[in-house]
Amino acid sequence: MSDKEEKRALTALQAALAAEHAAVYGYGVVGGRIREGRRTEARSAYDAHRARRDVLVREVRDLGGKPVAAAAGYALPFPVPDSEAAVRLAAELEDRVAGVYSDLVRAAVGERRTLATEALREAAVRAVRWRGESVAFPGLAERAATATASASATATAAPAPTA
Amino acid sequence: MPYPPPPRTPSGPRRRTLLASAAGAALLVGCTSGSGDSDSEESTGGSPSVAERARTRAARDSRGIVEHYDAVLAAHPTLTDRLSPLRAEAVRHVEAFGATGSAGATASASESASASASGTGAPTPAVAVPVNEKDALVELATAERVLADARAKALLDMPGELARLLASVAAAGAAHAYLLTEGAK
């Protein structure tokens, strides 16, 4: 890879890592609100995102970067008082993660691109599990705009760092 | 007194940025394939002709999936409510691969036309559908999953923007497979 390509890959890796930090935080909230019947599913998603986060930390270091840290706190995109909202939050978290991984697919090559492709797929399947319905282009906010006109809302709906 | 300018919605700039980058990407592919020049984006992953062939192939593969949905729907009309949204997404996949290809909008229009024509017109003998509804769904799910797996491998050799699209469509296929088998239980 050229320096420019490495830099691009590193930027995308850091963005993915930041999104995984937010997802781990978000699933902590989901786990506290979601009904018993779906708690195992939330737990395994939480574990999956932690594992992805750890992989990304290593990938960033491999490229000589300093892995972005988790924020001290995150503002949720909407109040999560009950199980129904927790399910909606989980789906949003997966949408957000899918978005950063599609960017990583574009920026990376080789094994990193494979990693991103798999992570995008897992996020898309989990989003469908939570939501019960699919979208045509998981992770591509610009193509979601024609369907729902909410691309920009979706893109910013994930927990935002507050500190 | 003149009216103040309309307030800008916070989402405006972001949306425009996204649209602009998408349009730029389409333009990039179009110019590259037309002139034969190899710019940095294309040269990172493969030659324009490789990408061009991959697009054509991807459009054809998605059309095959649409036809599979049509065959299942023809044999099992009771599945219409369930399958129609998934079929519609597969049609959008065909269009996505066609619309940014070398022939541009014309190709996409004819492709989507033929895709929808095969839906309303002649039955597709290419796909033999099991008489059992559940088996039909499992087969359809398998077709989606196999294609998603193949795309996940193929995109490794593609230029960045096309790889991103292929990865997204592969993820959608895997999600379809999940929805199809979940209901087949």
Short description:
By secondary structure, chain A is an all-alpha fold. Chain A has helices spanning 3-33, 39-62, 83-107, 110-131, 141-148, 151-156; strands at residues 74-75, 160-161.
What is the CATH fold-level name of chain A?
Answer: Ferritin
Mean pLDDT metric of chain A: 91
- Secondary structure class of chain B reads mainly alpha
How many separate domains make up the residues of chain B?
1
Level of helix content of chain B? over 70%
**What are the segments of chain B in which pLDDT stays under 50 over at least 5 consecutive residues?**
6-44, 100-124
Estimate what percentage of residues of chain A fall within beta strands.
Answer: under 5%
CATH domain class name of chain A = Mainly Alpha
Number of discrete domains of chain A: 1
From the spread of the alpha carbons, the general shape of chain A counts as: globular
Number of strands of chain A: 2
Oligomer: heterodimer
Q: How many E-type strands of chain B? A: 0
Walk me through this protein's architecture:
The complex is a heterodimer of chains A (163) and B (185). Helices cover 71% and strands 2% of the residues of chain A. By secondary structure, chain A is an all-alpha fold. Chain A has a single domain (3-161), classed as Ferritin (Up-down Bundle). Chain A is globular and about 50 Å long. Chain B has 185 residues and is an all-alpha fold. Chain B has one domain (45-184). Helices cover 76% and strands 0% of the residues of chain B. Chain B is built from 7 helices and no strands. The radius of gyration of chain B is 19 Å and the shape is elongated. At the A-B interface, helix 3, helix 4, helix 5 and helix 6 of A face helix 1, helix 4 and helix 7 of B.
